[in-house]
Specification:
single chain, mainly alpha, disordered N terminus, disordered C terminus, transmembrane, Melanocortin receptor 5-like
Length: 341
């Protein structure tokens, strides 16, 4: 809150100075956040855009897993776009922007959990999965998840308590997010634990190729889920911190000091959420070679460079092999490995 609108009646001089210091501290953190967002958000949009382009262009990427990942990338892209829009236009409706961001947050949680259920049924309930899984069904589930997220964001916007941003509504909002986070974290942890146990039991029952394929997909999604919940943990800690401050009966000076610490937590949470919305395509490429191959296939220039690299590498290996054979022949060795007389 700015100094010009704050009523200092009944405040001590020390408290007034501490509040002014807090105000300047918040402005400094806001400037740091704006600089980080200005450079990181476009990069995140580029990476998510590349992933969506590859997922649409390459036929091998048209899978149920990638439908969910594509929706997750769309939610991340919308969050990044909203952040950039607030930098460019300061006259935007802040309540609408926050509600839209809330929709994307709920959608991200939903699609991360949907991916865990998809892999659970594919690995642990294969007969049921084959009988019910289809791209059309996945699209319908995705639409339903967006509708759930939109309902949550709309309720946040139109509810008088949330719209007025009162202390009670802030507490309710933060507590709901904490409950949502912990519930879905527990569900994802349970599902991936079951998946890992099932894959270990199946090592001798299925072919190595099928096992490796299932393992790669499960590893990619597990790593992506771990990154998602780890990077959002700071935001949940921030919510708990605010609830504790609001319910506490601390003296005014201690509250100001607590809010000063909160600005650092808020900055860290915002940066981690920005990174989380940007790096998912890197996680896919790093953990699954099929995505790297699809990327090369989607962009002809990289495909050509890859072929040139492989051709150059094979030619170099051929020359090295010829040199080694020549050296062996000079020493009196035949290709069969026996020494000449």
């Amino acid at each position: 809150m700015g100094n010009s609108t704050l009523d200092y009646e009944g405040w001590s001089q020390e408290e007034i100075q501490a509040q002014r210091d807090l105000y300047h501290y918040e402005k400094l953190d806001a400037a740091i956040w704006a600089d980080v967002k200005m450079y990181a958000a476009p990069l995140g949009l580029l990476m998510n855009g590349i992933f969506l382009f590859v997922a649409i262009r390459v036929k091998s990427m048209h899978t149920t897993v990638n439908i969910y990942l594509g929706n997750l990338a769309a939610a991340d892209s919308l969050v990044l776009t909203l952040g950039l829009a607030l930098l460019v236009r300061e006259d935007l409706n802040l309540s609408v922007m926050k509600a839209t961001n809330f929709i994307c947050l709920i959608a991200s949680y939903c699609f991360i959990t949907a991916l865990a259920f998809e892999r659970y049924f594919a690995v642990c309930k294969p007969l049921y999965f084959r009988a019910t899984s289809s791209k059309a069904r996945t699209v319908k589930v995705s639409v339903a998840l967006w509708m759930i997220a939109a309902a949550g964001g709309t309720a946040w916007y139109f509810s008088p308590k949330f719209a007025n941003a009162t202390q009670t509504s802030a507490n309710v909002n933060n507590l709901l997010l904490v409950v949502l986070y912990l519930t879905l974290l527990s569900i994802n942890a349970t599902l991936y634990t079951s998946i890992i146990k099932k894959l270990r039991r199946q090592q001798r029952l299925i072919s190595s190729t099928a096992r490796q394929r299932a393992g790669r997909v499960a590893l990619m999604l597990l790593f992506n889920t771990a990154v998602f919940f780890s990077f959002n943990a700071t935001s949940i800690a921030e919510g708990i911190y605010i609830v504790v401050i609001n319910f506490s009966n601390m003296p005014k000076m201690q509250i100001i000091k607590a809010l000063e610490s909160w600005t650092d937590v808020h900055l860290a949470a915002s940066i981690l959420q920005l990174i989380n919305s940007s790096i998912n395509p890197l996680v896919y490429s790093w953990t699954n070679k099929s995505y790297r191959a699809a990327f090369v296939k989607a962009f002809p220039c990289f495909n050509l460079l890859s072929k040139c690299y492989r051709g150059s590498r094979d030619a170099t290996r051929g020359k090295i092999w010829q040199i080694e054979l020549h050296a062996l022949s000079q020493r009196g060795y035949r290709i069969g490995g026996s020494q000449g007389n």
